[in-house]
From TrEMBL:
<keyword id="KW-0285">Flavoprotein</keyword>
<dbReference type="Pfam" id="PF07992">
    <property type="entry name" value="Pyr_redox_2"/>
</dbReference>
<dbReference type="InterPro" id="IPR036188">
    <property type="entry name" value="FAD/NAD-bd_sf"/>
</dbReference>
<dbReference type="Pfam" id="PF00027">
    <property type="entry name" value="cNMP_binding"/>
</dbReference>
<dbReference type="InterPro" id="IPR000595">
    <property type="entry name" value="cNMP-bd_dom"/>
</dbReference>
<dbReference type="InterPro" id="IPR018490">
    <property type="entry name" value="cNMP-bd_dom_sf"/>
</dbReference>
<dbReference type="GO" id="GO:0016491">
    <property type="term" value="F:oxidoreductase activity"/>
</dbReference>
<dbReference type="InterPro" id="IPR023753">
    <property type="entry name" value="FAD/NAD-binding_dom"/>
</dbReference>
<feature type="domain" description="Cyclic nucleotide-binding">
    <location>
        <begin position="5"/>
        <end position="123"/>
    </location>
</feature>
<dbReference type="InterPro" id="IPR050097">
    <property type="entry name" value="Ferredoxin-NADP_redctase_2"/>
</dbReference>
<protein>
    <submittedName>
        <fullName>FAD-binding protein</fullName>
    </submittedName>
</protein>
<keyword id="KW-0560">Oxidoreductase</keyword>
<dbReference type="InterPro" id="IPR014710">
    <property type="entry name" value="RmlC-like_jellyroll"/>
</dbReference>
Length: 552
């Protein structure tokens, strides 16, 4: 069977691609891109061979691309650095295509896009799961700061190698060699060898090429939040020719990205992990030319009447004609005084593959009675010794879907503690035990070392600072849900009412969990994000017409 990572392009596809690039011949072995190069080119082999070599492993040849095969991976669609060296062998003829021209070809020719993107995604999976290498992060397995960096790299699919200074001989040797000490941790070594001490998230993201600055351009649409709602809006808007920029403070996928398995999303009968869904949507949006920058947190927004100007962390202001809030909602913390001490070192708000090794043969707690708690409990039960589902109420089925309740009841290592709350957390550096309290006041100590909490959320709307109308909890009002008195006084709203996903300011839309009255499901968030794009088009036509009539 053909290897899906290394398909061949047909002669017709090669002929089409020739319009986007240049042909080059090599009479001796020549490096055509190197590990760490940003904006590296795509190569299709017309004759001869290009070998992809692994510099982390004595330039071991991972694959030799032959005639009609091609180099590249999904990092080419954004700004990420090359992960390997590529060498054109003597006597080889290549078609070289610049990344921006490759993106044009991908957006225009769907059969070429299918071949390239399938191979790119397969290659990314292989690299992340089977290869050791990438950027090196040295830190303590018990440090909150280091956990945040690792979490960011995992969620953003940044190929890396973590060395835990508490257990790794190599980590300690490297520190010694660089004449550094534990106070310089977390230490980050980029693929080009650059070293960064006490690494911040922004430094790491810039090296990885996922954090971008935007020149003084006015975009058609700025999407804030790359969860299901924001990614759906990005895919539809970019595929319909709008210039789109999407920012997120954390990682693509939002809450859905944290779900170990989504089983009720249409078209995936055996379920899909949130991470997988998010990664595919992230690549899909970029394939249509959407710029996605992470971590880029919206802090404040201005409305000039003509444009919106967004001020975000770590970047210049972003100017846009229309804006879409897709910032979802944030988890509620357990009301325990020292909870922050354990966040990232025993207390978590999602259960993903990264937690598996820490939970192996351990006692694990899951707090909450919704579907997210149920899914996490089932997922963790596959690895932990015991999972304790801790619930303030007295009925597991009150908020959880029946299929999850049945599976939890059937799992031999899941124990449900009804009418119970977590009262205390203990452990010197990381969570070692906790105290539960029942309705009758009985206190029980459990040696739970990993606690996953899923107890509700509040909307992420601090950055709005009152610009558009919200309800008393901060969820954004849209369409007929906006009181007449809150509507922005302007020509557009004198002629028509806000569209169903439009806020109290024309051109400002809200979709997904952040919107008042939303259903809080992946499918509805995706539906709203897609639907809102047609409303953006209507707004852009209206504001263009208004501008033209003023100019005339
Ligand atoms: C563990 C878990 C399991 C779930 N399982 C299911 C399921 O099986 N089926 C189902 O239908 N639903 C499920 N849900 C619910 C579903 O995930 C949400 O309804 C959906 O993700 C909402 O999408 P959204 O895009 O509106 O918001 P979110 O997914 O919350 O995404 C919002 C994004 O905005 C970003 N953001 C926030 N503030 C800012 C800011 N100031 N600047 C920039 N970016 C910002 C966040 O980082 C985030 O990425 C689950 C939720 C969780 C937590």
């Amino acid at each position: 069977m053909n290897d899906p990572r290394f398909p061949e392009l047909t002669q017709r596809q090669i002929n089409i691609l020739k319009e986007y690039g240049t042909i080059e011949s090599y009479d001796k072995d020549t490096r055509v891109f190197s590990l760490g190069d940003l904006q590296y080119d795509f190569f299709a082999v017309l004759d001869g061979t290009v070998s992809i070599e692994d510099p982390y492993n004595d330039n071991y040849v991972i694959v030799a691309h032959g005639k009609n095969e091609f180099s590249g991976d999904s990092g080419m669609l954004s700004n990420r650095a090359a992960q390997f060296h590529a060498v054109a062998k003597s006597g080889t003829t290549l078609l070289r295509i610049r990344p921006q021209h490759l993106r044009e070809a991908i957006a225009k020719h769907s059969d070429i896009s299918d071949v390239l993107l399938n191979a790119f995604l397969e290659r990314q999976n292989t690299v992340l799961n089977e290869f050791t290498g990438g950027m090196k992060l040295i830190g303590s397995g018990n440090s909150k700061h280091t956990y945040a960096l690792r979490d960011f790299m995992e969620k953003n699919h940044i190929w890396h190698n973590f060395l835990d200074v508490d257990v790794s001989e190599e980590a300690r040797e490297l520190l010694q060699n660089f004449n550094l000490s534990e106070k310089d941790l977390p230490l980050f070594i980029a693929s080009d060898g650059a070293i960064c001490q006490k690494t911040s998230l922004d430094q790491l993201a810039r090296y990885a090429g996922v954090l971008m600055d935007f020149e003084d351009k006015v975009f058609d649409l700025l999407v804030i939040g790359a969860g299901p709602a924001g990614l759906a809006a990005s895919v539809y808007a970019a595929s319909e020719g709008l210039s789109v920029v999407t920012i997120d403070s954390n990682a693509p996928g939002g809450q859905a990205g944290k779900s170990s398995k989504i089983e009720n999303y249409l078209g995936f009968p055996t379920g899909i992990s949130g991470n997988d869904l998010a990664n595919k949507a992230y690549v899909q949006a970029q394939k249509f030319g959407c710029n996605i920058s992470i971590p880029h947190k919206a802090e404040r927004i201005e409305h000039t009447g003509e444009h919106f100007i967004l001020y975000a962390t770590n970047g210049k202001a972003i100017k846009t004609k229309a804006i879409m809030a897709a910032t979802g909602a944030n988890y509620t913390q357990l009301p325990i005084e020292n909870i922050e001490k354990y966040e990232g070192s025993g207390v978590y708000y999602s259960a993903t593959g990264m937690n598996i090794s820490a939970c192996k043969d351990e006692l694990v707690g899951v707090v909450g009675g919704g579907n997210s708690a149920g899914q996490a409990a089932l997922f963790l039960a596959e690895h932990a010794k015991e999972v304790h589902v801790i619930l303030r109420g007295g009925d597991l089925g009150a908020k959880m879907s029946d299929y999850l309740v049945q599976r939890i009841e059937a799992a031999p290592n899941i124990h449900v503690q009804l009418n119970t709350q977590v009262k205390e957390l203990h452990g010197e550096h990381y969570l070692e035990s906790l105290v539960l309290e029942t309705k009758d006041g009985e206190r029980i100590k459990k040696n739970i070392t990993n606690l996953f909490t899923f107890i509700g959320a509040r909307p992420c709307t601090d950055w709005l600072k009152g610009l558009v109308a919200t309800d008393e909890r901060g969820f954004i009002c849209t369409g007929p849900g906006i009181a007449e008195k809150d509507l922005y006084r302007c020509d557009i709203f004198r002629k028509r009412k806000p569209q169903s996903l439009e806020t109290s300011i024309p051109g400002f839309f809200a979709v997904g969990d952040v919107r008042k009255g939303s259903v809080k499901r992946v499918a509805s968030a995706v539906g709203e994000g897609s639907m809102a794009v047609s409303q953006v088009h209507q707004f852009l036509v209206e504001s263009n017409n208004a501008r033209e009539s003023v100019e005339a």
